[in-house]
Write a structure and sequence with these properties.
Number of helices: 1
Strand content: over 45%
Number of strands: 11
Helix content: 10-25%
CATH topology: Porin
Oligomer: single chain
Shape: elongated
Distance between the termini: 42 Å
Structural class: mainly beta
Strand order of the largest sheet: 1-3-4-5-6-7-8-11
Length: 207
C-alpha cells in the first residue's frame, strides 16, 4: 500500500514538472510579414511653380526576430522591404515619375501587455536604418535607378499578437520611421520628408 502511494506521488511530481515545462513562456519568436506603406506627400518649391509628389504604395514583405528577456520586455530586429509609385502634379497636369523601393532595418525594444493571454498588445521604440532607390520611367531613353542616401532614424511601433496556440500567433503592427530622403552623392540636393508609416500583418512562431 505504501509503495503504491509512493508511486502515485512520484507520477504526480512527474506530471507537475511536465506541465510546468510545457507551460513555460517561449523566449524567442520569428515572424514573416506582409507590409503596406504610406508615404507623406511632399511639395517641391520651384521658380516655375510648386510640384506636388504623391506616393501610391505596393505590398511589400518583412521578417523579424524577437528575443524575450522577461515576460513583458523584449528586443526585436526586423527587416521590411516596401515600395511605391511616384506621381508628380504640376499646374494641373499629372506625370508618372517612377518607383521608389525602400528597405528599413529596425532594432527596437518592446513592452508587452498580457503576453500570457490570447490578445497581447505591445509598444515599441528604437532605431532604424533606411535605404532606397528610385527607378525613373523615361519613355525617350532608359535611365538607371537613382540611389538614395542611407539614413539612421528613430522608429516607433504599436502592435498586437493574437495567440492561436502555444507556438503560433497572428500579428498586426503600425510602425513610424521619419525619413528625409536625399539623392546619393548629391549633398546639395533638397531632402524630401516622406516619413513612411507601415502597416504589417504576419504570422509568428514562438520557441
Amino acid at each position: 500500500m505504501i509503495q503504491r502511494i509512493y508511486r502515485i506521488i512520484f507520477v504526480l511530481f512527474i506530471a507537475a514538472g511536465s506541465s510546468r515545462v510545457y507551460a513555460q513562456t517561449p523566449s524567442s519568436e520569428v515572424g514573416a510579414w506582409l507590409v503596406v506603406s504610406e508615404f507623406e506627400a511632399v511639395a517641391i518649391q520651384d521658380d516655375d511653380g510648386d510640384v506636388d509628389l504623391d506616393f501610391a504604395s505596393d505590398t511589400g514583405y518583412g521578417i523579424s526576430f524577437n528575443r524575450y528577456w522577461t515576460n513583458r520586455f523584449s528586443t526585436e530586429l526586423s527587416l521590411q522591404k516596401f515600395s511605391a509609385e511616384i506621381t508628380a502634379e504640376f499646374e494641373g497636369d499629372e506625370f508618372d515619375i517612377g518607383d521608389l523601393d525602400a528597405t528599413a532595418v529596425t532594432a527596437m525594444a518592446q513592452w508587452h501587455f498580457n503576453r500570457d493571454g490570447r490578445f497581447s498588445p505591445y509598444l515599441g521604440a528604437g532605431l532604424a536604418r533606411l535605404t532606397g532607390d528610385v527607378e525613373p520611367r523615361n519613355i525617350v531613353e532608359p535611365t538607371e535607378s537613382l540611389d538614395l542616401e542611407s539614413e539612421f532614424s528613430i522608429a516607433a511601433a504599436v502592435g498586437a499578437n493574437i495567440r492561436l496556440n502555444d507556438h503560433f500567433s497572428l500579428a498586426g503592427e503600425f510602425k513610424y520611421t521619419p525619413w528625409s530622403a536625399v539623392m546619393e552623392d548629391d549633398p546639395d540636393d533638397e531632402s524630401l520628408d516622406i516619413d513612411p508609416i507601415t502597416f504589417a500583418a504576419g504570422v509568428k512562431f514562438r520557441f
